[in-house]
Amino acid sequence: MRKLAFVLLTAAALTAIVAVAATRGGPGPARASSHREAPLISQDPTADNTDLYAFVSPDKPDTATIVSNWIPGEDPAAGPNYFTFSLSARYDVYVDKNGDAKPDVTYYFRFKNQPSQFFLGNTQQSYTVTKVVGGKSTVVGSGLLTPPDNIGPRSTPNYGDLAAKGVHTLSDGTTMFAGQRDDAFFADVGAIFDLVAIRYGTGATGGGKDFLAGYGVHAIALQIPKSQLDNGGNHTIGVWSATDRQKITVVRGKAKTAWVQVSRLGNPLVNEVVIPTNLKDYWNRTTPDKDSQFAKYYTNPILATVLQKLYPQFGPFKDTDRSDLTQVLLTGLKSPALNYTGPTQADMLRLNLSIPPTPFEKINRLGVLGCDLAGYPNGRRLEDDIVDISERAVGGVLIGHSLPLGDGVDANDVPNEHAFPYEQNPFSGFDNTKSPELPKTG
Questions:
Q1: pLDDT tens figures, 149-162
Q2: Which is nearest to 83 in space by CA: 165, 147, 162, 1?
Q3: Which residues on neighbouring strands pair with residue 69, listed in sequence order?
Q4: CA distances from 171 to 178, 239, 241 (A)
Q5: Is the pLDDT of residue 230 over 60?
């Protein structure tokens, strides 16, 4: 549901956009990937990466924020066994500083349950954070606590205060949070996967239904000093996240265990839309430095072929020789100099740390398409409208065929916070946001 966002940006079009943004003196005022993207991971939701965000922090521009979400579609009222991080998984966040698509800075997270009380499973967990730099592992946080899930006013009163206690400072100076949050991604998923249907008009004037409204996710958020990430050259990093589970192999009666990757995420919607169904599970097991083997699916995108059949009146949709997709999603943009990481083809979110963040009140949801160079595909912010960016690009906005396409959902159902961890507090189970309010009796 969330990775339908591979943006079809040509180098020439981006050059024009960068030039326009420069002459305007900055962006004007304005106000993501999927769940269940591969067959096997759809059966293992606690290991399922749902969305990844990376951006220079608008309120602390000397830091970069990485938010990675797991566990799709958390209903706030999912008691008595509420959602938690898996005890048997290892959650990973990777940063590549030199463009080889291999991690230079890694954070690993392992979780444990706290004792249960009454008839409810305790949703507060403790966790350990291990940082790896240059092959050296250091525990930078241990015994840290997540806030509990937002159950209701009797079980979790003053939830904002409880959530604030989940923000910790690691020994390397990184600020972090782990726990349940509102799902910041917004999209009319029901229409998108019904053969890219549009409920009203062209989708540019509302009318869409935000499928993810009211649902939660489990997030790991890091706010890292840029000095620990910047390469001192082109200032561009690559970011991805993943989940590992232990595999046990028995050889001559002796058991050996090893961590095996079962899910990963860089750019939104790549595995759902770019990678063929028969390769999705294999893609989840591979690492970004091996992504050149999938390059033909970027160059000859399946979605463009499908759109040509569904909406020939909006075409033609070019579905071969798409070097623009390779640039945007596998290498970054070199000309113009936006977020190029080098010739190695790899699916990573690419973030240029030298581009200043856009103030919250001036963020343009269309990112680079809206002349806001601090937005997608230069990293990804919570406010970036991944679906609309994609549909308008596919419709031809970058080649002179401007169609105001969209899914009719332009923002999250609740405003994001303007301070770390940025994603809003989750709805409470007691509020029952999924059902209309019943009339009071008596």
A1: 999 999 999 999 99
A2: 147
A3: 51, 219
A4: 16, 22, 21
A5: yes
C-beta of residue 150 within 8 angstroms of C-beta of residue 123: no
Cβ neighbourhood burial of 24 (10 Å; 0-12, 13-18, 19+):
exposed
Q: Which amino acid would we find at residue 70?
A: W
Q: What is the pLDDT of residues 87-114, one digit of tens each?
A: 999 999 999 999 999 999 999 999 999 8
Residue 27 one-letter amino acid: P
> What does the pLDDT average to over 338-361?
97
- Find all residues with CB under 8 Å of 24, minimum gap 6, and list them: 371
Mean pLDDT, the chain, whole residue set? 86
Contact by Cβ (8 Å): 316, 308: yes
Higher pLDDT among residues 165 and 386, named by residue: 165
Centre a 10 Å sphere on the Cβ of residue 398 and count the other Cβ atoms it contains.
Answer: 21
CA distance 258 to 256: 7
Which residue shows structure tokens 């999912």?
A: 78
How far is Cα 243 from Cα 257, in angstroms, rounded to an integer?
A: 16
Supply the pLDDT for residue 399.
63
Taking the CA atoms of residue 365, residue 369, residue 50 and residue 214 in that order, the dihedral angle to the nearest 10 degrees is 20
Q: What is the 3-state secondary structure (H, E, C) of the chain?
A: CCCCCCCCCCHHHHHHHHHHHHHHCCCCCCCCCCCCCCCCHHHCHHHCEEEEEEEECCCCCCEEEEEEEEEEEECCCCCCCCCCCCCCEEEEEEEECCCCCCCCEEEEEEEEECCCECCECCCCEEEEEEEEECCEEEEEEEEEECCCCCCCCCCCCCHHHHHHCCEEECCCCCEEEEEEEECCCCCCHHHHCCCCCCCCCCCCCCCCCCCCCCCEEEEEEEEEEHHHCCCCCCCEEEEEEEEEEEEEEEECCEEEEEEEEEEEECCCCHHHHHCCHHHHHHHHHCCHHHHHHHHHHHHCCHHHHHHHHHCHHHCCCCCCCCHHHHHHHHHCCCCCCCCCCCCCCCCCEEEECCCCCCCHHHCCCCHHHHCCCCCCCECECCCCCHHHHHHHHHHCHHHCCCCCCCCCCCCCCCCCCCCCCCCCCCCCCCCCCCCCCCCCCC
pLDDT digits (tens, 9 = 90+) for 55-81: 999 999 999 999 999 999 999 998 888
Higher pLDDT, 36 or 252: 252
Instruction: Please indicate, yes or no, whether the overall pTM of this predicted structure exceeds 0.85.
Output: yes
Rg of the chain taking only CA atoms, in angstroms? 21
